Amino acid sequence: MIRTCIENANFEDTGFSYTLSLISGKHKMVILYCLMEFQVVRFNELKRYLKTISDKTLSTSLKELGADRLIVRTEYPQIPPKVEYSLSQRGKSLMAVLDQLCVRGMENRLE
Fold first, then answer.
1. What span, in angstroms and rounded, lies between the C-alpha atoms of 19 and 95?
2. Cα–Cα distance for residue pair 10/22, rounded to 1 Å
3. Contact present, 71 and 86 (Cβ < 8 Å)
4. Model-level pTM?
5. Which pLDDT belongs to residue 60?
6. How far apart are CA 52 and CA 34, in angstroms?
7. How far apart are CA 2 and CA 5, in angstroms?
């Protein structure tokens, strides 16, 4: 019975797979966590927090998070241009999960 369930399972159709697809990538979870901590953040601030990320990678990650409606991009019509990023309600719903990953990591870190 269990073997049949495993053989017929389609991992790509699970909620777990869908959630991983939203936050997968080297920097997406860190970006989301920064937005949780600092609430509203500009591009260069995120770049400072992430230290080793390139402009292109950060820009791509932000676009993907925006397309998945996890973050909100607010653009102000001024010169020089001002753009701020914050968590959407959908993004905020992931914070309990990310926070638990952080707690688990702190409690189980190998020294």
1. 12
2. 18
3. yes
4. 0.77
5. 92
6. 15
7. 5
Bridge partner list, 40:
86
* One-letter identity of residue 102: C
- How many other C-beta atoms lie within 10 A of the C-beta of residue 55? 10
The pLDDT assigned to 10 comes to: 66
Residue found by looking up tokens 């010169």 in the block? 79
Burial of 46 (0-12, 13-18, 19+ CB in 10 A): buried
What pLDDT, on a 0 to 100 scale, did the predictor assign at position 85? 94
Element (H, E) at 43: helix 43-50
* The token pair that represents 41 in the structure block: 């953040």
Structure tokens at 93: 């719903």
Q: Which pLDDT does position 11 carry in this prediction?
A: 62
Please check whether residue 62 is in contact with residue 76, taking contact to mean a CB–CB distance below 8 angstroms: no
Q: How far is CA 99 from CA 36, 53, 57, 74, 103, in A?
A: 10, 22, 24, 25, 6
Q: Which residues of the chain have pLDDT under 50?
A: 5
